[in-house]
Amino acid sequence: MNTQLDITLQTRKILYKILKNIPREQLLEIPNGFRNNIWWNIAHIVVIQQLLVYKLSGLPMKVSRELVDKYKKGTVPDGRATDDEIDEVLGLLFSTIEWTIEDFENGLFKEFNEYPTSAGVTLKNIDDAITFNLFHEGIHLGAILSLKKRLTKSD
């Protein structure tokens, strides 16, 4: 699992740079042909990792219920993000993965509630969840890069 979690950290570094360097207006903009924005995708990535890894393992998530409710699967962007919310997600990009590494190494993930994903993959254990999360983050990173490309073309 160390490789999957290390790759996840590398992905999070890319997301961090995007979140720090793109103006808020562009983070929140939904270009024609898209259903969401860069900000929603990044916050969604943080939330889904917690749901897949912690909630399915029966462990407390390390993100707020409010954040989960706002960015879980099936939600849509509301066009807003406060400075506090952006700062919170910036911090969670790394801390959530660092906590996962520590908790994994300490053997906290003992149980797992099997979960059939919408991608047709059934997660049966923590290893499956961590691997699937990497796939999920890759999909959203691709969407973010497409959004970024579209938004910089329109300048």
Q: Strand order, main sheet: write it out.
A: 1-2
CATH class: Mainly Alpha
Kindly, what is the distance between the CA atoms of the first and last residues, rounded to a whole number of angstroms? Answer: 41 Å
Gyration radius, rounded: 15 Å
CATH superfamily: dinb family like domain
Class from secondary-structure proportions: mainly alpha
- For the secondary structure, the number of strands is 2
The number of helical runs is: 6
CATH hierarchy: architecture:
Up-down Bundle
What is the global morphology?
Answer: globular
Mean pLDDT: 95
Features:
single chain; 155 residues; mainly alpha; Four Helix Bundle (Hemerythrin (Met), subunit A); two-stranded antiparallel sheet; 6 helices; 3% strand; globular
Give the arrangement of secondary structure elements.
Elements: H1 2-21, H2 24-28, H3 38-53, H4 65-71, H5 83-105, E1 115-116, E2 122-123, H6 126-153
Antiparallel strand pairs: 1-2
Helix pairs in contact: 1-5, 1-6, 3-4, 3-5, 3-6
Plain-language structure description:
This protein has a two-stranded antiparallel ribbon with strand order 1-2. The chain is built from 6 helices and 2 strands, in the order αααααββα. The model has no long low-confidence stretch (mean pLDDT 95). It has one domain: Four Helix Bundle (Hemerythrin (Met), subunit A), CATH 1.20.120.450. The relative contact order is 0.20. It is globular and about 45 Å long.
